[in-house]
Design brief:
The complex is a heterodimer.
Chain A (H helix, E strand, L loop, with lengths): L3 E4 L2 E4 L5 E7 L5 E8 L3 E8 L6 E2 L6 E5 L5 E5 L8 E8 L7 E2 L3 E5 L1
Parallel strand pairs in A: 2-11
Antiparallel strand pairs in A: 1-3, 3-8, 4-5, 4-9, 5-6, 7-8, 9-10, 9-11
Chain B lengths: L3 E4 L2 E5 L4 E7 L6 E6 L5 E7 L5 E4 L2 E5 L5 E6 L8 E8 L9 E3 L3 E6 L1
Parallel strand pairs in B: 2-11
Antiparallel strand pairs in B: 1-3, 3-8, 4-5, 4-9, 6-7, 7-8, 9-10, 9-11
The chains are: A mainly beta, B mainly beta.
Chain lengths: 112, 114
């Protein structure tokens, strides 16, 4: 009954360092998403993958890259972290269409 | 893109009081979702509304979508401390490639004091 699993839960990076946030779902969903949540800004879509093998930019893609490794896994990479990327990152998956999303518990990232 | 305005931004109520959170869209809503988030946790799906005039309830929470499908409300009856958290509305992107992409409001922070 895992749903969507994100790792790590917490991370502190120095400016310029790189890291990859991992996300895996076990619900056989086609679509996967990465959001960031900032105070007063709600959730903003970074990248999404409508199906295995495809990825598309969301509202705030700059500074990020993604990989849809297989149907289960969708990773988010920060190549050169900046303080502006300090945020809480959520991964989500969906069957697509008009079905809601299932969210992971989030990764709290601080860039110093 | 879909723009969603939530009001109020924050709400502090005494336990036992009723409250309403609103979500207004700049465009016709094809699917409207309500989520709840507790501090430090992920989002929990509450309800989804699709048809104009639709109303759904779960325990003490009722969500409605207006006939024009541009506004939704979330009503909590006899609030309890367990209702505290951030409530977010999300709207489906609608037709074509944005179908299935959810756009979110900025959230309403609810505090319930005993």
């Amino acid at each position: 009954n895992a749903g969507v699993t994100q790792t790590p839960k917490f991370q502190v990076l120095k400016t310029g360092q790189s890291m990859t946030l991992q996300c895996a779902q076990d619900m056989n969903h086609n679509s996967m998403y990465w959001y960031r949540q900032d105070p007063g800004m709600g959730l903003r879509l970074i990248y999404y993958s409508a199906s295995e093998g495809t990825t598309d930019k969301g509202e705030v893609p700059n500074g990020y890259n993604v990989s849809r490794l297989n149907k289960r896994e969708f990773s988010l990479r920060l190549e050169s972290a900046a303080p502006s990327q300090t945020s809480v990152y959520f991964c989500a998956s969906s069957q697509g269409g008009l079905y809601g999303y299932t969210f992971g518990s989030g990764t709290r990232l601080t860039v110093v | 893109s879909q723009e969603l305005e939530q009001s109020p931004q924050s709400l502090i109520v005494q336990e036992g009081k009723n409250l309403t959170i609103n979500c207004t869209s700049s465009k016709t809503l094809y699917g409207l979702y309500w989520y709840k988030q507790k501090y430090g946790e992920g989002l929990i799906f509450l309800m989804m509304l699709q048809k104009g005039g639709e109303e759904k309830s779960h325990e003490k929470i009722t969500a409605k979508l207006d006939e024009k499908k541009q506004q939704s409300s979330l009503h909590i009856t006899a609030s309890q401390p367990s209702h505290a958290g951030i409530y977010l509305c999300g709207a489906d992107g609608g037709r074509g490639s944005t179908l299935g992409r959810l756009y979110f409001g900025r959230g309403t922070q609810l505090t319930v004091w005993p």
